[in-house]
Amino acid sequence: MDDLRADAVVLGGGSAGYAAARTLAAQGCDTLVLDGAPELGGLCILRGCMPTKALLHAAELREAIREGGAWGIHAEGVRVDLGALFARKDALIGEFAAYRRGQLQDGRFRLVRSRARFEGPSLLRLDDGRAVRFGQAVIATGSRVAPVAVPGLADAGFLTSDSALAQARVPESLAVLGGGAVALEFAQFYARLGCRVSVVQRGRHLLSGFDADVAGELVAALRREGLEVFTGATLDRVERVAEGRRVRFRQEGKDVSIEATEVFHGLGRVPDLDGLGLEAAGIATERGRIAIDARQRTSCPGVFAAGDCCGPHEVVHLAVQQGEVAAHNLLHPGRPREMDYRLRMSVVFTAPQVAQVGLSEREAADRGIPCRVDRYPFNDHGKSMILGCREGFVKVLADPQTGEVLGAACVGPQAGELIHEPAVAMAARMTVAQLAVVPHYHPTLAEIWTYPAESLAESVAASKGQRSAPAPEVEA
């Protein structure tokens, strides 16, 4: 077997890796992609965003049928065929994965199915023993489920997002460890299919990346659906019992235990760096991640990183941007680009959905950034009331002097779609006064943004002794 050479090597064929490879190849760079995963496609397609959203859609359909009685629509004998449900999910994921495989194998760059480890700043060793000599590289090896850190959990046995997606079954009861997006999405999916679910979160509130008022709305909604939610818990241990598993923890100074058929490990993911031999190339890490700068450069000249392996935010659209920035800077060091997280978005696809863009109130306070904040509830908004979605609110953060939109959050119906409106406003550096007067069709969910925007515009104008322009009237 002959050794390999390439101008640029990309380690990983997921979202970040593919984005880097296609960018390099489009500019004529001799590019080699190395991917040793059991299946091509990447986390988002195979075990992340896409399959979980497919399952959540199925649970939403069932819930909508159950809620039809409010409109006099009654369905008798509704049942869930788990085999068919998971088969539909698998068919969709098969289509997405096949498309990505086609992109990776269409000849724009070379693809080798192998893991690799560094043996120097410009040398990799493949599993089959071949050497790969390269000029520059992009590491995009993704992430894996975080190692078990709870005593007894490994012996008791547990589900992860990976294993849960592969099993067409719903346990009688489930203890979910963790309060992040993955943990809560799975918790609600199982609960809506008849499972008794308890959520145990170590932090003071769920969704630690969001403001407490936003997370609190979701907690209230989950509890109304019958889920148990424990926050501020210190996990003690998990043990096997005759009925399944027992989770022991302390909360508010008291010993608490809950029993469930299964335990779901939702305590996060970590960068997949095992076996890469980063030390041999002088590639530094920080808190378990590859250390990078704003240009996606590692501590080894000519080696870049993108996606979950370096973070700091594990979401697909940012991983794609990082891959593109890394590839550009690899090819054009004299015209560098930097990542800008000003428009960072996060979405949780529970019901109600939770989303935010830009600054949160907590982040603004931590960074000493002054802002004005205004909210408007969905329970006073015509379209959401028609839909039966009375939970949650939207809020907008604005610069108190200029009125520029600095951030926004939404907890309520279709939050993942609605959050793009303030994101566009922020991309254009619009003020709340400008957002308030953008025409909105009535009745729509999207027009809810005009209410806090108008209030903030008046507040900013009043602080300057000015009179704000009136918002357009909308006929009911």
Layout: helices, strands, pairs:
Layout: E1 4-11, H1 15-26, E2 31-34, H2 43-47, H3 49-66, H4 82-104, E3 110-112, E4 116-120, E5 123-126, E6 131-139, E7 143-145, H5 153-156, H6 161-165, E8 173-177, H7 181-192, E9 196-200, H8 212-224, E10 228-230, E11 233-241, E12 244-251, E13 254-260, E14 262-265, E15 269-271, E16 285-286, E17 289-290, E18 303-305, H9 316-331, E19 345-348, E20 353-358, H10 361-366, E21 372-377, H11 382-386, E22 393-398, E23 405-412, H12 415-418, H13 420-427, H14 432-436, H15 450-463
Parallel strand pairs: 1-2, 1-6, 2-3, 6-18, 8-9, 8-14, 9-10
Antiparallel strand pairs: 4-5, 5-6, 7-15, 11-12, 12-13, 16-17, 19-20, 20-23, 21-22, 22-23
Helix pairs in contact: 1-9, 3-4, 3-7
Features:
single chain; 476 residues; alpha/beta; FAD/NAD(P)-binding domain; Enolase-like, domain 1; 7-stranded mixed sheet; 5-stranded antiparallel sheet; globular; disordered C terminus
Brief overview, please?
This protein has helices at residues 15-26, 43-47, 49-66, 82-104, 153-156, 161-165, 181-192, 212-224, 316-331, 361-366, 382-386, 415-418, 420-427, 432-436, 450-463; strands at residues 4-11, 31-34, 110-112, 116-120, 123-126, 131-139, 143-145, 173-177, 196-200, 228-230, 233-241, 244-251, 254-260, 262-265, 269-271, 285-286, 289-290, 303-305, 345-348, 353-358, 372-377, 393-398, 405-412. With 476 residues, it is an alpha/beta fold.
Tally of separate domains: 3
Q: Roughly how many Å apart are the termini?
A: 74 Å
Provide mean pLDDT, rounded. Answer: 94
Question: Radius of gyration over alpha carbons?
Answer: 24 Å
User: Rough shape?
Assistant: globular
Summed up, the helix count is: 15
User: Biggest β-sheet: count, sense, barrel?
Assistant: 7 strands, mixed
The assigned structural class equals: alpha/beta
| CATH fold group of the largest domain | FAD/NAD(P)-binding domain
CATH top level assignment of the largest domain: Alpha Beta
Number of strands: 23
* CATH architecture annotation name of the largest domain: 3-Layer(bba) Sandwich
Question: What would you give as the CATH superfamily of the largest domain?
Answer: FAD/NAD(P)-binding domain
User: Fraction of residues in helices?
Assistant: 25-40%
